[in-house]
Amino acid sequence: MIPLSTIQSTAESLMAKAAIEIPEDYLGGLRACANTETGDLSAFVIQAMLENYEAAKEDRRAMCGDTGVPRWYVKYGNEARPEGGPVAVERALRQATASATRSVPLRPNRVHPLWRTDHDNNVGINAPEIEYAFHPEADWIDLTTVHKGGLFGSDYRMLFPGDGMQGIRRFFLDTLVGFGKRGLACQPAIVGIGLGGSKDACMVLGKQASCLRTVGSRNPDPKIAAMEEEFRELGNSIGMGAMGFMGSSMVVACNIEVGYCHTGGMPMSVHMFCLSSRRATARIHGDGRVEYRTDPEWFTPYSRRETVAWDEPVAVAAE
């Protein structure tokens, strides 16, 4: 039985980590951008952000004044038994969100869409969002919090099979140019692309690809992995750098996830995470042990399975 107190205290720690500490994979990617950036203003912004990250970590303050809209990703091992069940876990995550808003502090960004009601704690109707996944033969729970900007940085288009790769490239470039020229994203950033699924699933896949995949990871399909590298280079060839200034570092990484879709369509979504890529993960084991990490490990062979039943692949020993 996983104690509820452990779940809540871990969730509160994750909220602070996400707001203050840049994940090492993204930090490494941003440093690589700093080494290759060709635009003077863009290079200045990247260097200023790197210095800001160090100051935030040293002072234990949120790295950005706009701390986004906190959300949760919860992966349950099939044998996990949290005290109080899933309803108690949800309450603990909502309480951790409210507590962290005061203690970190986070900016209270959540309001009712019509009445603008503000509880001053980032909690309300359907807020924070909590998404779930599952894993076989495990007794742990993975908690991941992501603090993503809540206004822009996402777009969707229903493409068709006849649009092919050229259509995918065109929408990708149109979106990035629009984000940069109109100030709809804070870049350089991790870009996520969702291909396929229903419209809502397509948007979810793209957001998860941007927020839950690490810099340097690759889709296991070699053709999609090649697309990821091609699109990263393509995004950095449009003449835009940090925060829309002229430059060559729009995209730190490009991650693509796919889902089976209707035969007549090819839906696509594009998401940019944020110049402050705020995420943090912890695994709470069945015996109460807690392990913190920066890779959410959200996408696994199990989550990408194509078959009805799941038979875990057997590793073949090298001869």
UniProtKB/TrEMBL annotation:
In terms of InterPro entries, this protein maps to: Class-I_Fumarase/Tartrate_DH, Fe-S_hydro-lyase_TtdA-typ_cat
Listed A to Z, the keywords are: 4Fe-4S, Iron, Iron-sulfur, Lyase, Metal-binding
The keyword Iron-sulfur is annotated on this UniProt entry: yes
Catalytic activity, EC: 4.2.1.32
Primary enzyme class:
lyase
Gene Ontology molecular function, alphabetical: 4 iron, 4 sulfur cluster binding; L(+)-tartrate dehydratase activity; metal ion binding
Family, per entry: Belongs to the class-I fumarase family.
Q: Which domain of life is it from?
A: Bacteria
- The protein, known as: L(+)-tartrate dehydratase subunit alpha
Keyword check for Disulfide bond: no
The segment(s) forming the Fe-S hydro-lyase tartrate dehydratase alpha-type catalytic domain are 10-282
